Amino acid sequence: MSFYLTDAEWAAIQLSLQVASLAIAIALPPAVLLGYALARWKFPGYTLVNALVHLPIVLPPVVTGYVLLVLFGRQGMLGSFFEDVFGIVFAFRWTGAALAAGIMAFPLIIRPVKLSFELSDGQLEEAAHSLGTSRLKTFLLITLPLALPGILSGAILGFAKAMGEFGATITFVSNIPGETRTLSLALYTEMQSLSGDAGAIRLTVIAIVVSICALVFSEVISRRLSRKLGGQHD
Amino acid sequence: MIDVDISSRLGDFSLAAKFAVNSGITAIFGKSGAGKSSLIRMIAGLSAPDSGRIALGERVVFDRTASINVPIQQRGVGMVFQDSRLFPHMNVERNLLYSQWAAGRKSAVGLAEIAELLGISHLLKRRPHGLSGGEKQRVAIGRALLSNPQLLVLDEPLASLDASRKAEILPYLLKLKNEFGIPMLYVSHSLGEIEQLADTLVLLDAGKVVAHGPIAQMLSNLELPQLASGPDAGSLLFATLNTYDEQWQITEFGLEGQRLQLPGQLGKVGQDARIRIKAKDVALARKAPEEASVRNVLSVVIEGITETSGPYAEVDCRVGEQHLRARLTRHSVHELQLAAGQQVFALIKSVALDQ
Questions:
Q1: How far apart are CA A107 and CA B254, in angstroms?
Q2: Strand order in the sheet with B343-348
Q3: Which of the 8 DSSP states describes residue A125?
Q4: How confident is the model at residue B72 (pLDDT cuts 50, 70, 90)?
Q5: pTM (2 decimals)?
Q6: Cross-strand pairs, B15
Q7: What confidence category does residue A229 fall into, taking pLDDT thresholds of 50, 70 and 90?
Q8: Domain A7-228 class, CATH top level
Q9: A48-69: per-residue pLDDT in tens?
Q10: Is B46's CB within 8 Å of A129's CB?
Q11: Which burial class, exposed, middle or buried, applies to B143 when counting CB atoms under 10 A from its CB (0-12, 13-18, 19+)?
Q12: What are B296-334's pLDDT values in tens digits?
């Protein structure tokens, strides 16, 4: 058995990194805003929004993928809108894989984000307002930097989840080599082939290493930042 | 000049406050739950009352009928909170200058001057979490001052500190008062702090302003049991430091043309002082005592005698323009045949110097 990755496997890993990066870029800004809203505001429909956000965790991934296909397919409501207005196509493209991965990773991202906004109860913001900064500026200068540990650890966990997303991706954008065949899909393909055991093991090892690294990295970063910010709650 | 006339309902609690006070330090005093914090949050603009009007100096900052509600960012009110609320991700200097670099405020006094005055110059590069409670609170005061406020609001700034830390902060607050003359609203449930600092007192009870007026007058008003009863109740007198006697180590104060002596060196000649005398530490005599160990004897005129419940009577005496209270037994009052208008001698057993 060879320890070296084949070109196709390399391509799958690179594609996974690319897909996960775009997924986080898409998912992080709304996760931060929504995490803030859920942590600090009480509004009508709070429970519904909170449930919707966490839905991808409990929903079968194939359902999420199918809903995406219906909405973002070329005939879908949103799919045709994005194609007409921005010229962006999701169906059977790597961008679609990123969309699916971003949505599947969303609950994982928003959890630590929301938590870190909940840790402070708006008292520092009051002080900042009394010193003259507007709500927006206070959010950027006080609220956001203090939530940074949560945002970063959410982003890293989300990235790891996005790299390995399978069910929703294969349902929505299929398994096209070089376009949508990410790490998990490549692994699945190798398992299906008669001679794919070695490749499957190689990719499995990589998936495990990536996941462990992400978990450790996320933990280290949030600890370091918390220490640096220290005494947030005294 | 702070002119407040507001009312608000907060759940089961209703707040109705009407008072007008001049500059200097105004204490808002009341038990916890009396509505002190709610009141100053409305004055500062952190929340809005249901109705009424708030004016700071010439400026109306809130008026429900005229739909005026100046946002907190523009009210020019510097806040000092009980829990200093320093920004943990910035060092002390960035905290102090926050209103300048983040909100573009200009301050008449500089960072160096404020840091020096508050004794925090050596902390500028430190982060808040390494500071002691007293240091944090001084930085918070400096930060509020450097935002160039028209009014400084201090919400129980010493409540979370232990006794020695409190003693560490009070002199700085006095310095602020003397050197900047910035009007302050000082919220506290500690009468001791208020006696040392305040010029005016607003008494709040169950969401209502019960009374407001000059501090000494309020403290001797027997109709305000919150202030004037209790074993330690007494009088606050304003005196001037006359001389210090090196041989006997005695400081002499001038009070309405008379003298009070306190042991120890207690300040500089010519300095104003607040002297607190508990009513139970004052005895009255018809004649000036001779060969007595009590050194402080003031000639006073009895203004009135109030027989409270129980064995005691409160005797209100006048020293020049100021008031001194004595707590005697009703029996003594009867035996000495004390009555309003009489000139008697007050023997003061113990005196506390507040500043």
A1: 74
A2: B282-285, B343-348, B296-307, B312-319, B322-329
A3: H
A4: very high
A5: 0.82
A6: B8
A7: low
A8: mainly alpha
A9: 999 999 999 999 999 999 999 9
A10: yes
A11: buried
A12: 999 999 999 988 778 889 899 999 889 999 999 999 999
CA A31 vs. chain centroid, Å, equals 9
- Check if CATH label 3.40.50.150 holds for domain B234-353: no
Residue B127 with chain A: CB contacts under 8 Å: 230-231
Q: Which of B160, B162, B84 is nearest to B120 (CA)?
A: B84
Give yes or no for residue B165 having a pLDDT over 50. yes
Token pair 């043309």 in the structure block, residue? B257
For A11-69, the DSSP string reads: HHHHHHHHHHHHHHHHHHHHHHHHHHHHHH---TTHHHHHHHHHHHHHS-HHHHHHHHH
Portions of chain B given CATH number 3.40.50.300: 2-225
CB B297 within 8 A of CB B348: yes
Q: What is the predicted pLDDT for the residue at A228?
A: 66
- How buried is A182 (Cβ within 10 angstroms: 0-12 exposed, 13-18 middle, 19+ buried)? buried
- Average pLDDT score over chain B: 89
Predicted confidence at residue B166, as pLDDT, reads 82
Domain boundaries, chain A: 7-228
pLDDT of residue B349: 83
CB pair distance less than 8 Å for B105 and A229: no
Start-end of CATH 2.40.50.100 domains in chain B = 234-353
Per the CB < 8 A criterion, the answer to whether A218 and A153 are in contact is yes
DSSP string across B303-333? EEEEE-STTEEEEEEEETTEEEEEEEEHHHH
- Domain B2-225 carries which CATH code? 3.40.50.300
Whether B240 has a pLDDT exceeding 50, the answer reads yes
What residue has token string 């919400």?
A: B155
What string of DSSP letters covers B227-283?
HH-STT-EEEEEEEEEEEETTTTEEEEEETTEEEEEES--S-TT-EEEEEEEGGGEE
Interface test with B, best of A119, A120, A125, A130 (most B CBs within 10 A): A130
The alpha-carbon radius of gyration of chain A (Å, integer) is: 20
Which pLDDT belongs to residue A234?
35
Whether chain B has a CB inside 8 Å of the CB on A121: the answer is no
